[in-house]
Batch of 3 targets.
Target 1
Amino acid sequence: MGLLTPTTSGTLTTPDGARIAHRDHHPAGRPTTTFLLLHGLAGHQGEWDTLAGRLRSDGHRVVTYDARGHGAGTRTPATTTREAHVQDAVALIEALEPAPVTLVGQSLGGHTAMLSAASHPRLVTSLILIEAGPAGPSRTFPHRSPPGWTAGRSPSRPWRKRKPSWVTRHGRGPWSGGATAGTRPGTAPRSSTRSPNWPPPPTGSSGPASPAPPSSSRANTARCALRNRP
């Protein structure tokens, strides 16, 4: 294959005044297919550079652009509605005359590609969606989730840092007992026996600490006993 022609860059001004920065990647010779790549929210067209290069090497024409409010285009456009995003994609297709095209959209770009194909089918031959689709959240998702996932929660994080060996199991303070390995320097070692001086007395008091209030489970047991008393 001969040398690839250079990538051309330009800016398209939409009817509402928004500037859309775009790049047109031409292959050597007549293109087999023309792809229009639409990035996602908070993205930019540079995210497609690797894919654009590979497609162009295979003989395809690839057009990428920065969605309104993103990248090198107008950062604060008059509107950012779905309709405005679709109008930008359609205006770019009509201005560069690559139609019909294969739309490839990721996330927000996928929604724009889907709506563009639905409203302007004559401009689109194929539609490829990445992290996007026509359906809403699945009601059966909790039942179909992979092992380790539950509804509304992510799986455990194996990369989470472990607590140092000197941290007590309950994290409530020093413990009595003889010196053992694995304790933090300057602190009491682990033991199953709580130090009689813990918890410390209130500030300004030299007397022993007041006894801790009963736990919630003990309080519940006491309430049940009172209810069931004859």
Target 2
Amino acid sequence: MAFLDVGLAFAMAYPRHIWWAVAFVIVGAIGLEWLQNLRPNRHGREADALVKIAGAVIGLGTGSLIAQIVGWRERTRLSAGL
């Protein structure tokens, strides 16, 4: 759930740089799972990283879609002179 929110926030904040946001959240998810291996009582798993990445990608996609809709509405409103 947290990575979905992070993906949504990044997509809304940086709609023109969506691929950088994708790279950032994927590296972040893999990095957090890797860092768990440094603790003896934690276990970083590939499946956990994939779930985090999936949530982030869903959030990025949703945020990108919302940003496009908002941008389209703004362009339409400006061209209509409102």
Target 3
Amino acid sequence: MPDGVERILPFTFYNCDSLERADLPESVREIGESAFGFCSSMKENTNNCIIIGD
């Protein structure tokens, strides 16, 4: 994800089975509801983010 992104809108990557990793820049301040929901291939996160739910 490019630097400067501040928001990830709700359901942006919802049910994206091919997404394995999300590198979020420090500029991200808001992650919308279920933005990464049901990403079954998600194996790791970065920048000390917390994954809530599956």
